[in-house]
Write a structure and sequence with these properties.
Elements: H1 2-30, H2 36-40, E1 54-61, H3 65-72, H4 91-96, H5 102-106, E2 120-123, E3 146-148, E4 155-165, E5 176-185, E6 188-196, H6 199-202, E7 206-208, E8 216-221, E9 229-232, E10 237-245
Antiparallel strand pairs: 1-2, 1-4, 3-10, 4-8, 4-9, 5-6, 5-10, 7-8
């Protein structure tokens, strides 16, 4: 009888320990995952995974800055300050010290829920030759022309950000040094400007493991001096293309 009671006690203890162990394991898995954005965000190396040969264009209207800041600020981050968008104060130094946090920006649900302009994508040719859809010459490692049609984004100050996978730039031996932006009203050219991209932004590799754009390694091409901040309105169509690389 005593032996039977002893065996029963040992069995009860074993079930208790297994139960505690499961609770601890589940707790450690659930704690860091607050929503799908956190679950799909990763800043670790992806081991050279190849991405599609496309550039991804993000448009950040200044009128959405508070919404973006409110979303990004509470998320986990490394460094001294969180990155809260391109319209934040001290962009260059802020982003330079917070490159590992940039996947939070890409992963924002607002890119797909209609509160921010939809992410655009365009091919990056690997050889030169021919004319693209908008009449511009096709040059190797310069992304083709993408059009922002009038009335799609009505905001006086919209920052243009271009992400390019490193494997699309001759195995990372080239950089998109210049970007050409033309504004037209019908067939009349209202503005034609060539912007030099910032070396600080393109100097770091962004490891992205989420699902807003294909997982891979990217460089950021834009400006930090409000150069690529456009007046997207109801009057002009805007055309953006890669212009020079080296």
């Amino acid at each position: 009888m005593k032996i039977k009671q002893l065996l029963l006690s040992l069995l009860t203890l074993s079930v208790f320990l297994v139960s505690c162990s499961k609770e601890n394991i589940l707790g450690s898995e659930i704690t860091p995952i607050n929503n799908m954005e956190h679950a799909t965000m990763s800043t670790s190396s992806i081991g050279g995974e190849q991405t599609s040969l496309k550039a991804y264009i993000f448009v950040e209207p200044v009128s959405k800055h508070v919404m973006i800041k409110n979303h990004l600020k509470p998320l986990p981050f490394t460094g001294r300050l969180p990155f809260v968008g391109f319209h934040g104060v001290g962009l260059g130094e802020n982003l330079k010290s917070n490159f590992p946090n940039f996947p939070n920006y890409i992963n924002m649900p607002h890119w797909i829920d209609g509160r921010l302009p939809q992410i655009m994508q365009v091919d990056i040719p690997q050889t030169s030759g021919g004319i693209d859809t908008f009449g511009n010459s096709v040059e190797a490692f310069n992304f083709k022309t993408v059009k922002i049609t009038k009335n799609t984004v009505n905001d006086r100050f919209s920052w243009i950000i271009v992400l390019v996978p490193i494997n699309a730039m001759n195995n990372d031996t080239k950089r998109q040094r210049k970007i050409h932006i033309v504004e037209k009203s019908g067939n009349i050219t209202k503005s034609s400007r060539v912007y030099t991209t910032d070396n600080v932004l393109s100097g770091a590799v962004i490891n992205y493991n989420g699902n807003r754009i294909p997982a891979g390694q990217y460089r950021i091409y834009s400006t930090t001096d409000r150069g690529m901040v456009l007046n997207l309105n109801s009057t002009n169509d805007v055309y953006i293309r890669g212009f020079s690389n080296q």
